Amino acid sequence: MDISQLFYDLFFDYTLRTVALGSAILGIVSGALGSFAVLRKQSLLGDAISHAALPGIVIAFLLTRSREPAVLMLGALIAGWLATLFMLNVIRTTRIKDDSALGLVLSVFFGMGLMLLTFTQKLPDATQAGLDKFLFGQAATLLQSDVITMAVIGALAITLLITFWKEFKLITFDPEYAASLGYPVRFLDVLLTTLLVIAIVIGLQTVGVVLMSAMIVAPAAAARQWTDKLKNMIFLGGLFGALAGVSGTLISGSMEKLPTGPVIVLCMSVIVLFSMLFATNRGLVWNWFRNLQNRRQLRAQAVLADLNTLAMQHPNQERGHSSAVLRAMSTNPEGVSLALSQLKEQGFAQELGKDAWALTQAGLDEASKNEEKEA
Amino acid sequence: MAVNAIDVTDLTIAYKDKPVLWDVDMEVPSGTLMAIVGPNGAGKTTMIKSILGLIKPAAGQVLVYGKPYAEQRHLVGYVPQRGSVDWDFPTSVLDVVMMGRYGALGWLKRPGASERAAALDALDKVGMKSFAERQISQLSGGQQQRVFLARALVQDAQLYFMDEPFQGVDATTERAIVTLLQELRSAGKTVVVVHHDLQTVPEYFDWVTMLNVRRIACGPVSEVFTDNNLRKAYGGKVAFLSADDTVKNGKH
User: Fold this and answer.
1) Given CB atoms, is A181 within the 8 Å cutoff of chain B?
2) Minimal Cα–Cα distance from B98 to chain A, Å?
3) Is the pTM of this model over 0.80?
4) What is the nearest CA distance from A370 to chain B, expressed in angstroms?
5) The sheet that has B6-15: what strands, in order across it?
6) What is the ipTM score, two decimals?
7) Nearest chain A alpha carbon to B152
8) B84 in reach of chain A (CB within 8 A)
9) Could you report the per-residue pLDDT of A50-68, keeping only the tens digit for each?
10) Gap between the Cα atoms of B100 and B97, Å rounded
11) At residue B236, does pLDDT exceed 80?
């Protein structure tokens, strides 16, 4: 399937357009709210909440016998919040610490969910078919009405995020100081966690319970690599999430039998990998290059200083010195010729004759400037 | 008779059956620079957190300028311990200082030009104006402390609480901060500092409260900061070294 056909279909093919739109919304909301969760050290909480949603979905179905997404989402929301409360209580009342409480709740709720799911699948009721798709998502079955629901709830979540921006920033950075200013920190904490639960819930239909945590954590991890400003980080998180959503949809749509949810998560992983390697200032490759440049610059400076020393020691400052002498003076003899050509390029050194190096006037000025800096 | 900046009566706080503060009374007149000292676990941080309403006491009453704290928030500035915060948070120095104005802004308003100017002014007072756009992850311990102080200054409060501000801070910064605190005191403000270095108490502070779960002493440094009280507070774990040729231990 060629690219132009793909992009045409993106706008005019109902299914592709709907799924792509739904994935984009999922990406924006989970990317933005996930960034806050990561900054609040709640990345794993997102994982626990999404796994805990499974029993909520199944019980919601069992009680109503309806597979309306709104109903199932409500079940997921309630289960997600119950899991959070359970975790907080375990941490507060027992000796179990954060990470253990999290793992505990995640496995217990998920286990219960799987048990209920298996039970449901044995029922003679045909409507239960497809509930298991919530494990890894069933993006291909998204309807326009589902996407509209996601859009409305997502827009609400983003609006609340913007409205309470400075409060959320404050309680994430310094909740004690926030309390001393008189802010109801508990209320704000609950609100922000609720927004996170909402972000998770609207994504469950697309990427499923098992992989949703990736869409919470990965956009934030990628975004952090590119910026040091909170506003930009949240924005980039949403952008990366949307990018992963749309590209995942396109890729899985163009090939047979590729499930959309996991492909979206894979696209997100590629974005994260790229960000880890190539981001400006923080990327590994970027830093490697910068270190290389720094080392070269330092070596050149050392050779410059050595040439200066030689010039000072000889009554005839114009005299050239061979690179062998410089190599003898240097702690890194192999780098001397490279340093000399670098100095020549910068106009600080010149070759007076064959292998006779001396500083130019500019070079002498530079050397005395460096000496002053050292003093 | 001027109202005390702080009046604490019978303050009792327990943490799972263990008393952290027991029946503590404390009076701090306004316009003083006071240190709270005591051994580890003495309840010093708990004391100021309970005054700020961050911890609920089991018993006791706290009045700030004669009224309950909740009514006097706008008069109080808080400088928490540096370690209570993750300095890797993506934000700049100026941004952190502007947070001090959030309380005055209320819920929906965003910080604007006047908040920015006030923040730059406070940074100037602590000598950090050139660091305004710096990432907070790139600050040294002393710089972090000064940023926190600027954040409290921007609140334009009457009563300031500082929790171990000199912990891990270089000598120059320490001196600069103390000078600033003394200026605040001269301007009529009250400053309460949880302090860890007994050596500098007589030099920096005019009032001191000595705690060890119970109140050992509270009053002017010259009257109350005696070897006897220190012994009571530190339970014998303090050595008195006098500036003679012979070094005596615990004798007076």
Assistant:
1) yes
2) 10
3) yes
4) 25
5) B18-28, B6-15, B59-64, B67-68
6) 0.89
7) A177
8) yes
9) 999 999 999 999 999 888 8
10) 6
11) no
